[in-house]
Amino acid sequence: MKPSNPVFTGIETTVFETMSRLAMAHNAVNLGQGFPDVDGPEDIREAAASALIEGPNQYPPMLGLPELREAVAETNKRFYGLEVDAKSEVLVTSGATEALADCIMALVSPGDEVVLIEPLYDCYLPLVRRAGGIPVRVRVSPPNWGLDEDALRAAFSERTKAILINNPMNPTAKVFSEAELTLISHLCQEHDAFAICDEVYEHLVFDDAAHRPLMTFEGMRERTVRIGSAGKTFSLTGWKVGYVTGPAHLIDPIGKAHQWVTFTTPPNLQRAVAYGLQKDDEYYSGLAQDLTAKRDRMAKGLSALGFSVLPCAATYFLTCGIEGLGLGDSDVDVCEKFVKEAGVATVPVSAFYGSDAPTGYLRFCFCKKDWVIDEAIARLASFLTADGRESA
Asked: For the chain, what percent of residues have pLDDT higher than 90?
């Protein structure tokens, strides 16, 4: 029998799905997969329900409902000062992962090199390879996650077609600095490369900081596409509504790729997201404040148990070191031990690297109810104490 596509043949199930399955099998508190355990604002859900009943429920425009594209354009202006043409510079997709696939298929040709910064979200590598692209990885490492200028410069060449950057970054909770983004912008222009910016955590930035899209940097407006997610912005991850903003000459081919993937996205969800994007500043600041409190609650509990808690500037995630806890050297083994014996599911940070990964760090998801966070801390404390380790 002829083989299937080698990019996907034998590929492992995503670590998030694996840990979620283990969590269910062992009745564990799931701090692995990154989704909130409460649904988003009721008024947005009511808008979706009303639109579903009222209709129409037929194919909406391939690029997205005009009202959602206009709302995306308006939020670009409102938050970042970007002037965007809703008709030609915004595309609605069925989630950010589809948006990434569309962008990569449209912009990357076989043999093109694509710069990736690892640790990286697990779909990046297979999507680049499926397009025939050649991944060129640059590493940031715990505990400070600094981007090495020399390594980044060395990754760019005349064969570089694009850089794919996740900012704010999963799993590191890093927000790239002004200097790092400036360097990336200069290298893109120097090598005539595109920037594909996964910015789904754009509104989940803490401590009164603000996200700045790479698209706002001098010389980047015409070579950058930025991806947003209603799932992250409104805690409605199951809706799978994403959007791409970019110059018309890039949105056009990305839209052509989109039409052969999902073609469109449920119209009632689009209408509800358009409504949600118009929420006042209090909603957006409240979302960040709520997650900041959850971050601090979890960080305090884990630190008291002896984990080294790394700084967290954004996203849903805390990275914690396990050195000194006497749990073993492999983060994968520790994760399995926690889910099976302590009843707490986490994710090994090594899963976000291609090879030769640091193995002493775990990722904890804190976008959970307070009692869930407290229960997880209590279970870990009980396990560490029962196992004869220090938990002070």
From this structure: 88
Q: Buried b vs exposed e over 306-323: b needs ≥16 C-beta within 10 Å?
A: bbbbbebbbbbbbbbbbe
Indicate whether 390 pLDDT > 50: no
- Angle among Cα 205, 239, 230 to the nearest 5 degrees reads 30
CA–CA distance, 96 with 77 (Å, rounded to integer):
21
- The tens digit of pLDDT for each residue in 339-360 reads 999 999 999 999 999 888 999 9
Q: How far apart are CA 81 and CA 131, in angstroms?
A: 33
pLDDT tier, 392 (very low <50, low <70, confident <90, very high otherwise): very low
Which pLDDT belongs to residue 328?
81
Whether the pTM exceeds 0.70: the reply is yes
Measure the N-to-C terminal CA separation of the chain; round to a whole number of Å.
58
Domains and their CATH numbers in the chain = 15-40+282-386 (3.90.1150.10), 42-279 (3.40.640.10)
CB atoms within 10 A of CB 3: 6
Sheet holding 194-198, edge to edge: 90-93, 242-245, 224-229, 194-198, 160-166, 113-118, 134-139
Strand ranges of the sheet holding 317-321, from the earlier edge strand across to the other edge: 308-309, 317-321, 361-365, 347-348
The pLDDT tens digits of the residues spanning 193-239 come to: 999 999 999 999 999 999 999 999 999 999 999 999 999 999 999 99
Residue 251 structure tokens: 């949105």
Amino acid at 99: A
Task: Identify the helix (H) or strand (E) that includes residue 126.
Answer: helix 124-130
Give yes or no for a contact between 315 and 121, defined as CB atoms under 8 angstroms apart: no
The residue count of the chain comes to 392
3-state secondary structure 144-184: CCCCCHHHHHHHCCCCEEEEEEECCECCCCECCCHHHHHHH
